[in-house]
Design a protein that fits this description.
Layout lengths: L5 E5 L4 H12 L3 E6 L3 H9 L6 E5 L5 H9 L8 E4 L14 H29 L2 E6 L12 H20 L6 E7 L7 H4 L6 H4 L6 H14 L3 E3 L2 H10 L4 H12 L7
Parallel strand pairs: 1-2, 1-4, 2-3, 4-5, 5-6, 6-7
GO molecular function, one term: oxidoreductase activity
Keywords: Oxidoreductase
Family: Belongs to the short-chain dehydrogenases/reductases (SDR) family.
Length: 262
């Protein structure tokens, strides 16, 4: 068995997860990468360029069996690092959304993520060693009009990570870092049916390489939080002192269907 450190990275077929996997492999980690699409296998082939072992799994992390499938693929190997990055978005008004669609967002972003974190953190805390990066979002600070379920799940994840970090604070060798980007140039907006929105068509979205680099550096330092890019730091600071009704109205202008034409 390889003596390299071992990392699991979820949502690694594209976007931030794809870039995090590159950084991990470049840093000498063997990888177990997962996504809910066949593209993860092509991504895994790309990660092999750095000479570490790479294994890919196509699994649905919105389900507990999907998480179990991922963990089984680790073959009992000690997990040194977890990037819990898998996430799902959903645009349009809540009353117009199908129950199965908004439930899948919650099951992916919250239920599956928590189950994975619990399974991975228990042995990390027991041996007092391990690093975890959780992809939250500055969306968690903002009432997400026309993206209400997604923003709500990110508010949950941002808060949950803070709570768990405190619960395990006596385990000095285990760190939990929350990566909180703003809008990122990924397939998120297409998959969430948001290409007719102002935020979906904006050319000011962050580059996933830059976001992943920020997250990786914070993870390696054991920082609690990292808000990627200065413009998002400003937006997050403003959100903390702005009434919710105003934030919701601002988000409406970005995320309302048809706002790309306004």
């Amino acid at each position: 068995m390889s003596e390299n450190k071992f990392a699991i990275i979820t949502g690694a077929s594209t976007g931030i997860g794809f870039e995090l996997a590159h950084l991990a492999a470049k840093d000498g980690y063997d990888l177990l990468v997962v996504a809910d699409e066949p593209l993860i296998n092509a991504a895994a082939a790309d990660f092999q360029q750095y000479g570490t072992q790479v294994r890919s799994v196509e699994a649905d992390l919105a389900t507990l069996p999907g998480v179990d499938q991922l963990l089984a693929a680790a073959d009992g190997r000690k997990i040194d690092l977890l990037c819990a990055n898998a996430g799902r978005g959903l645009g349009h008004g809540f009353l117009d959304q199908d129950v199965a669609e908004w439930r899948r967002v919650i099951d992916t972003n919250v239920t599956g993520t928590l189950y994975l974190l619990q399974k991975v953190l228990r042995p990390m805390v027991a041996r007092d060693a391990g690093k975890v990066l959780v992809t939250g979002s500055i969306a968690g600070f903002i009432p997400g009009s026309f993206q209400a379920v997604y923003n709500g799940t990110k508010a949950f994840i941002d808060s949950f990570a803070d709570a768990i970090r405190n619960e395990i604070k006596d385990s000095k060798g285990v760190t939990v870092t929350t990566l909180m980007p703003g809008p990122v140039e990924t397939e998120f907006f297409e998959r969430g049916d948001m290409l007719d929105t102002s935020v979906g068509t904006s050319d000011s979205k962050s580059d996933p390489k830059d976001v992943a680099k920020d997250g990786w550096e914070a993870l390696m330092k054991g920082q609690a939080h990292i808000i990627s890019e200065w413009k998002n730091k400003i937006q997050a600071a403003v959100a903390h002192v702005t009434p919710a009704a105003i934030l919701a109205e601002q988000h409406r202008k970005m995320a309302k269907p048809g706002s790309a034409e306004d």
